[in-house]
């Protein structure tokens, strides 16, 4: 391989650095040349399950020793890994699939290395959440990542309620045996028409997106047993419906502010902030009042009030 042409940074891996390496979420061709170089060159690779990562690495001729690092042993493994880094070894961390640290172990190790003044470098790779998001057709400009919801009880119900009101696109992970339950819960919390794409088996042979809304996805998976891996991309809550102008209520509030001693400009600014209404519309209302007019302001509709206004 021509390393310069492939863009590989030839000095990698460097001693004393922890590399977080993204690995395929299905398609083995997604393991990047840089990832391979780093994984082949480090002293040791921390992975969730050696039986899972072993075959992937073998397929690329990578013979680096593996060390299991998962949620049940990460605490006891931490001091040893920190020592090895401090001694100048280059180490890598991978997860079963995708990016370590995203609904996978890694966060604690990264925090500990950083706290100890060490270097952490990410060799980016596939992530199911972002892969599903960008091919969902739903707004990607602003989004939030929910990962797995709490498995049961009040915490789960509360998270679903928050999710139902979230205006940004949300991305969730779910296990196949819980998918139908989650779709039923989304149906109840967000309604049947909420945009939804259920991404199944991304980057694999049976990759599929099922949507475009909660009702359609629910009907589909009531007919088809959910099998494989699933990431859900849920459209944001629609903006609140516009409120009809209520000139009388606004006048009352303006008058209260004036009576309390606010100069007209301050009263309009305050009320604009409080109600989400355009300041110029409130000025017009005030102006109409000073001319003893009881007509409503010219715009005819109010902007929707911001939450908590
Ligand atoms: N760290 C991983 C990442 O960066 O995407 C996520 C790990 S999390 C433990 C595993 C979950 O990711 C699965 O239960 C599923 O919800 C989602 N997932 C992983 N691979 C997927 C795929 N090929 N298609 C759809 N979802 C996938």
Q: Characteristics of this structure?
A:
309 residues; alpha/beta; Cobalt-precorrin-4 Transmethylase, domain 1; Methyltransferase, Cobalt-precorrin-4 Transmethylase, Domain 2; five-stranded mixed sheet; 10 strands
Q: Describe it for me?
A:
There is one protein chain. With 309 residues, the protein is of the alpha/beta class. The chain has three domains: 17-126, Tetrapyrrole methylase, N-terminal domain (Cobalt-precorrin-4 Transmethylase, domain 1, 3-Layer(aba) Sandwich), CATH 3.40.1010.10; 129-234, Methyltransferase, Cobalt-precorrin-4 Transmethylase, Domain 2; 239-309, no CATH class. It contains twelve helices and ten strands. The strands form two sheets. It has a five-stranded parallel β-sheet, with helices on both faces. Helix 7 links the parallel strand 6 (143-147) and strand 7 (169-174). Helix 4 runs parallel beside helix 5 (107-115), helix 7 (153-165) packs across helix 8 (179-190) and helix 8 runs antiparallel to helix 9. The protein starts with a helix and ends in a 19-residue tail after the last helix. Mean pLDDT is 90; it is low at 293-300 and 305-309. Bound molecules: S-adenosylmethionine. S-adenosylmethionine (SAM) binds next to helix 6, strand 7 and strand 10.
């Amino acid at each position: 391989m021509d390393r310069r042409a492939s863009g590989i940074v030839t000095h990698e891996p460097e001693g004393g650095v922890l590399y977080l390496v993204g690995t395929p979420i299905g398609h083995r061709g997604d393991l990047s040349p840089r990832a391979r170089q780093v994984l082949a060159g480090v002293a040791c690779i921390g992975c969730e399950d050696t039986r899972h990562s072993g075959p992937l690495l073998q397929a690329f001729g990578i013979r680096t020793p593996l060390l299991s690092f998962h949620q049940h042993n990460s605490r006891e493994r931490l001091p040893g890994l920190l020592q090895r880094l401090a001694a100048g070894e280059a180490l890598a961390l991978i997860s079963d699939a995708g990016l370590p640290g995203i609904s996978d172990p890694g966060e604690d190790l990264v925090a500990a290395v950083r706290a100890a003044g060490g270097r952490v470098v990410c060799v980016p790779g596939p992530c199911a959440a972002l892969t599903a998001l960008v091919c969902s057709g739903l707004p990607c400009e602003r989004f939030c990542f929910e990962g797995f919801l709490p498995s049961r009880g009040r915490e789960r119900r509360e998270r679903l309620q928050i999710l139902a009101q979230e205006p940004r696109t949300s991305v969730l992970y779910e296990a196949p045996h819980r998918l139908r339950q989650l779709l039923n819960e989304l149906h109840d919390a967000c309604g049947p028409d909420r945009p939804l794409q259920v991404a199944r088996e991304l980057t694999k042979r049976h990759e599929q997106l099922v949507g475009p809304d909660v009702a359609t996805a629910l009907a589909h998976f009531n007919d088809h047993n959910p099998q494989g891996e699933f990431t859900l991309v849920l459209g944001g809550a629609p903006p609140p419906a516009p409120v009809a102008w209520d000139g009388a209520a606004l006048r009352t509030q303006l008058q209260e502010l004036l009576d309390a001693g606010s100069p007209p400009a301050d009263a309009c600014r305050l009320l604009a902030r409080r109600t989400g209404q355009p300041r110029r519309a409130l000025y017009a209302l005030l102006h109409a009042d000073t001319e003893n007019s009881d007509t409503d302001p010219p715009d005819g509709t109010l902007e929707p009030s911001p939450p908590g206004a």
